[in-house]
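A further point concerns the way the authors explain their paired sequence and structure data. Since the whole study asks how a given chain folds, the encoding of that fold should be made plain. A single example would do more here than another paragraph of explanation. An entry of this sort, consisting of the sequence and the corresponding backbone structure tokens, reads as follows:

_____
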Amino acid sequence: WSLPNAEQYALQYADGRQTFITESVRHPPSPPGPAGAALAGSPVPFSLQNRREIKNGSILRLTTSPDQEAERLYSGIQSKNLDVKTDSLKKLASLSQDVTFAQEFISRNGLKQIYSIVEEGNDAGEMLAHTLKAFTELMEHDFVSWENLSTVFIKKIVSYVNMNAVDASIQQLSLSILENMVPTSRLLFELVKNEVTLDRLLTHLQVTNAQLQLKAMALLIALLLTATDPERRDMMDYLRQKNIRQFIHKNIIHTSEPLGDEMAHYLYVLQSVSLNLCEHRMRTSMDPYSQEQRELLQSLRQTAFESESEAPAGNFSTERRRSLCAKEFRKLGFLNNSNPAEDLRRAPPGLLALDNMLYFSRNTPNAYSRFVLENSSREDKHECPFARSSIQLTLILCEILHVGEPCSETAQAFYPMFFGQDHFFEELFCICIQLVNKTWKEMRATQEDFDKVMQVVREQITRTLALKPTSLELFKTRVNALNYSEILKLRQTERLHQEETLAVPVLELRERLKPELLELIRQQRLLHLCEGTLFRKISSRRRQDKLWYCRLSPNHKVLHYGDVEEGVNSPPIESLTEKIPVADMKMLLVGKECPHTKEKSSGKQNKDVLELAFSIVHDVEEYCLNFVAPTRYEFCLWTDGLNVLLGKEMTSERTQTDLDVLLSMELKLRLLDLENISIPDTPPPIPKPPSNLNFCYDFSHAEQ
């Protein structure tokens, strides 16, 4: 357009994130001081050329170039005129999301001005909120290290969290800044941990403002995950004293508002961190020479047999007493009755099994005595060994509840009943050990059947937990209702279903039905893509609360995507400004092949993210649109749908599951008339035609 001073102008997207269009890779000058050093040493490329990413139909506007905007706003935020300063900070908060503008502003030492606005503390309300928002967005680009922040700045941010008479939006932003800061260095973690007390975070958790509650929970989780094991244990003990569990159960889980994905993830992490406190005991073997541990074992024996052994014990010789103890330990179900400590040398479950047995004996003494005495009176081969069962059950519960495994970055699957009960693991053990005895009797088991019984118990527990009971009482009711005969019925149904689908004619029918049903699955996958899905952006530093939405156009020709706000479930397709024509899609990458998982490979790779990551390679330049699915189910549906669009086979495990379900239903419908009729493996022979088969009608006679 032959504009004079063309370098002072730039094109910018009119919709969506309003990113500046960049022509070439540029390296802006670094500011003096530590911020400049951090920027100069940053591995992040500065201005990635994005001109080639412009799609047909994108609306652009002519605006001031990023460096001119950065210069103008840099001056504006130093203005003595409060209106000019507020407007400049508001515009800065908006433009800082753009990487090109962010570099230009940081290169002018703009962060120093933001530091001074916060440190001087003269501004409040709307102006301060814009300042903190701009700071958060600028730091999001990872150009400047969090460790460069001054102690004065950090303490000022902390003061906004600790003060009562502060606007909720400022407290939310301050909590978010501290959450980002905590995982970056040990020094910052200790500073925040000492300045923001757990009591203060609990106060924020008790407010009615859901966003403030969420940010407080996010900071609490960041502190717990960054802490060392002893620190984490102390923090969890303190939170337990303050009844955080009861508060979460009553005011977060069972509130009238639906639980958001972010809060569900934090509750999952809190549950995981709590259960992992058992890991140390689980991995510690029993020391046969420890006097304290030997006394605990003896107390277990005495609680069960005190009435039998107390009175005459003084009259027995040492040898007789040892023989009596060995006999009682055998009745308790220890394999090595002369030295029961040997049974607890296996780790896992280690000393955790002993802790569970002691908890059961002390907190439910009647049930404990009944279990032991009932089995003592049975024949040797039919008695259910309490100790051996407890050790194996503890191991099963550790495996089911993932004790000792690292937290997932994306999982949201927590058990509501976990927050409804103190000593959850021990109480669950108490219910399940009585279930073992019940199932043992129902199976009329002998010692040789021990592994079979424990396998049934594992199935009873996992099937009941899958129903997500809201309390341990409900779990107890349901798991006891799922007795051995019910398990047999379920197994038999599954086995019969498998057998009837393996007959040769049925297999042939399956093959004929497959193409039609696969087409049905393809249509369902494309419909799911048309409905769209909400994805979260996950950085190498932390789980982010930024959301974006992606959906397929109804004519299956264009993928639309764009950023959305929290709480938007299904944005209209017109509001998603970015688009990729399906014709430009080249290939689908999953797991380790994705560029966004390779970027993170320098740190500790998270298996969970690898399992949910996929990317679409598109355009001649082979750009990538990177996804991390919220669940494995969404991952399967999206990868299947994208493969359909690319004209490839659907490869996810969900395709096979859905195909099996549809085939099963279709086969049952087709075979309804053959119920209770055995289907032969080979078709019956076709009989020879009869000798008097003269059904042919001679039309010639009729014509005459």
Q: What stands out?
A: The radius of gyration is 34 Å. DSSP finds 30 helices and nine strands in the chain. Confidence is low (pLDDT under 50) at residues 26-47, 309-313, 601-605.
